[in-house]
Amino acid sequence: MKLTGKNIIGNRLSQEGDTAFYGENPATGERLEPAFYEASPSEINEAIEKSNRAFQYYRNKTGNEKAAFLEAVAEEILALDSVLIARTMEESGLTEGRLTGERGRTVGQLKLFAQCLREGSWVDARIDTADPERKPAPRPDIRSMQKALGPVGIFGASNFPFAFSVAGGDTVSAWAAGCPVVFKAHPAHPGTCELVGLAIQRAAERTDMPEGVFSMVHGRRTDIGMAIVRHPFIRAIGFTGSFSGGKALFDEANRRTVPIPVYAEMGSSNPVFILPRILKERREKIAQELAASVSLGVGQFCTNPGLVFVGPSADENNFRLDLSKQFAAISAGVMLSAGILNNYQKGISRLESVNGVVTMATGSGEAVLKGQARVFHSTASVFLQKRELEEEIFGPSTLVITTDDKQQLLQAAEQLGGHLTATIHGTEEDLQEYEELVNILEQKVGRLLLNGYPTGVEVCHAMVHGGPYPATTDSRTSSVGTLAIHRFTRPVCYQNFPQRLLPPELKDNNPLNIWRLIDGERRNN
Amino acid sequence: MKLTGKNIIGNRLSQEGDTAFYGENPATGERLEPAFYEASPSEINEAIEKSNRAFQYYRNKTGNEKAAFLEAVAEEILALDSVLIARTMEESGLTEGRLTGERGRTVGQLKLFAQCLREGSWVDARIDTADPERKPAPRPDIRSMQKALGPVGIFGASNFPFAFSVAGGDTVSAWAAGCPVVFKAHPAHPGTCELVGLAIQRAAERTDMPEGVFSMVHGRRTDIGMAIVRHPFIRAIGFTGSFSGGKALFDEANRRTVPIPVYAEMGSSNPVFILPRILKERREKIAQELAASVSLGVGQFCTNPGLVFVGPSADENNFRLDLSKQFAAISAGVMLSAGILNNYQKGISRLESVNGVVTMATGSGEAVLKGQARVFHSTASVFLQKRELEEEIFGPSTLVITTDDKQQLLQAAEQLGGHLTATIHGTEEDLQEYEELVNILEQKVGRLLLNGYPTGVEVCHAMVHGGPYPATTDSRTSSVGTLAIHRFTRPVCYQNFPQRLLPPELKDNNPLNIWRLIDGERRNN
């Protein structure tokens, strides 16, 4: 399969511009063929216009029709087989095992949404029946359900070239909602993007989806992304990446004549709290597991535990020695791109220059072209004064914060801003003593874990991958799991409509057999 | 019951500032005693700090406890009896009948939310059970539900001094979600606000709610509202009023260090489409009903039909004559305030100065201190060129737009921005011929009506009182009905939590007997 380097504009490939860039192998610094052509303003415009035309058809596709499309995308991705895995390995430095797993997750995600569409109850159908006899005024027949917002612009992440990229969670939830997608390809894995983009194009064609249900544009310049955000036909934005990137899109979207929602997931330090009794019981084990979680995939997860608060304990010194030993043994690993490695190294330097922060241990192996693990130590007194210690450093590092007493630990928890996750390690007794901690932390994050590690985000119905600002620009939702679909819908209400004109979800005889709220009662008949 | 003119800061009354203002009887222009004191910065701050402290308790109140509070508020409002109605009549110029009805709606709304809380399923509890045997990695136990956002700042509307004011839809949905409310009293009905505010204070006290679950500050200056929006403890804003007011709050909220959601309902022209066959059948009746809908409550409804598109028809001329006759017979009415009357008159002048727009008829009665009905006429060709014809004029006026052909009518529909409602009048045959119109309009509004009138918003589960920008700043929700509760929540997820630490909504044995999504299946056991 030969890559073309072109933009995917609905059913056609297009190369109007002459600014090109290349993928790069982060393990070697080598440039990867072919050249990819940045989309021109007219290509972006054409993609969005097609997307808007497609919306008029796609929004009315049935759940089964949309499900068939998602399942076809899953099949076409699997059909790419080793061609896809090989290209993504070259572009991302990620291992075959990791990428095979991530592909499985991506395909599983497409299937979960397909299932959800075939079942159909996600539309939150509500029916309040008429009462012509009511006084003083008759009660009308009122019915409502969730409907698609319109074309969505999506920006993928570099750290999950499948699961948070072209056919990733944002795209699949937008499609499930009934929204066409204009995808901005990630310049760190343009070849992967093209392979998956063409797989989608084939899937759309063979399941009879309208042209424009998917388009993909290449570009490294920020104005290419901004042109998507500014276009009046675009109705929502999905983004996973840095705070500065997400915030810039959010601000631009709010400056539009018609502002639109931006779902930007922008990073998190995923604080972990280790309470005294469990530290005594499981000290070495926790050190080992934590080091593994921090260094998993060279630390390149948005759920990487970057802050570890240790409760007041006589064991904390030994815990730090354990952790240091563990970190010293972590081999440096290839990071996703030269840019990410550079940012990681800058983050490390920034943190080690802070007064009151010391390096406990550095990982093994050469740092050339690779990210070296690092574990820092500071105290809660320093942390409470220096808000910058809370900022995410994307990569295999973590900062251990020791506390003088329970009060100080709770105070540190209170001071936290928004994060994706928070984790508590504690025995039953610890959790009783620190009960307030749960109450504090559930106001700071989207997901709370007990005695586990935040890396590894389950794709399911109950998952919340989100959290208060600055973890995301919209805490009211999740970017992983079926909750994500609601980001791209709004309720529409029909008053006194005859049966013929109602969507099937709202007809009296419930042809789709979905769960509905009828006069306040949940029923599936 | 003597009014104090003071701010309600949690459990106490406060008057720190010395800038005072008075309510005014819009029917006479007379000033109404007593003086109301604008809140000082420290009063605003104290109210919000109390609100934030209250949140720590109130967020964990059970559904039954919150329901008891809402029901007590309803009782205390009813107990004010004629004292409340009399003061509100004086301040608003609204009739006793109208206000008694609105009070019933407000009390009904409190009870509907109480019901919803006692039933409990609104939290969208989701449970994905663990699978320790899963390969390659065990599946953790994941549970999630909706939790309250935090203290909410609410700005009421002048046109519904009960239903969209102190204890109105925004307040009750925030309380239902678990959020304390800091209410900015409307300067057009400060006495009404105090009466209802004190009723809430009593209800909170007798149902053991934490101090700060409700506070209310007075003020006419915009910086008082802005101080609420800017305060870091405030987590969301509810607003009903003008576009300029809502947009200013929205922009300020997005400029915060931590941006927060703003639910501003900002107005709508509620386009009505009258198709040819029904015009032939029901011409006079429609003219009569439409004139009644436009002039109901002196046109002071956000769902007032301000734009009427007439399909191509030989009857349109007679329809305009009918309408003119109807409008000429409408008596001028007292409007809510001198400011609103003034804006209405300016809107009328603005519209009559547009080339291509003509006045068809003016209502009867003196315009002094009163709003006089007005019906205008223009054509779709003019409408398609002049976007300003779409803007809401708040008051008893409407603009009839005649069309040359079906194509032009659809084009005008396509051009519309966001509105709260759209209405189609048509026979079965009309609706078949104009089927596309439903498809176009459901992309423009929150609620679509057939052969009815948009005034009169039913408070129920299926209602959507909302719509795309500029009708609101957030189309993904409703400000009326139980859907409104979701504006003030976000999902929180618990991974591997022991039963003891889970909220009752998520415990295995389902102690609240609510509907939940368990491994993707809807169950209430």
Structural write-up:
- 2 copies of one chain form a homodimer.
- The first copy, chain A, is of the alpha/beta class.
- Chain A has 2 domains: 53-266 and 474-487, 3-Layer(aba) Sandwich (Aldehyde Dehydrogenase, Chain A, domain 1); 272-450, Aldehyde Dehydrogenase, Chain A, domain 2.
- The first copy, chain A, has 14 helices and 23 strands.
- Chain A has helices at residues 41-58, 63-92, 96-119, 169-177, 190-206, 222-230, 243-255, 276-295, 316-328, 338-352, 380-385, 406-415, 428-433, 435-441, and strands at residues 7-9, 12-14, 20-24, 31-37, 126-128, 142-148, 152-155, 181-184, 214-217, 236-240, 262-265, 272-274, 307-310, 333-334, 358-362, 370-371, 374-379, 397-402, 421-425, 447-450, 489-495, 516-518, 521-523.
- In chain A, the strands form 6 sheets. The first copy, chain A, has a 7-stranded mixed sheet with strand order 15-17-18-13-12-19-20, sandwiched between helices.
- In chain A, a hairpin with a 6-residue loop joins strand 3 and strand 4.
- In chain A, helix 2 runs antiparallel to helix 5 (190-206).
- The longest helix of chain A is centred in the N-terminal third of the chain and has 30 residues, at 63-92.
- The radius of gyration of chain A is 25 Å and the shape is globular.
- The mean pLDDT of chain A is 97.
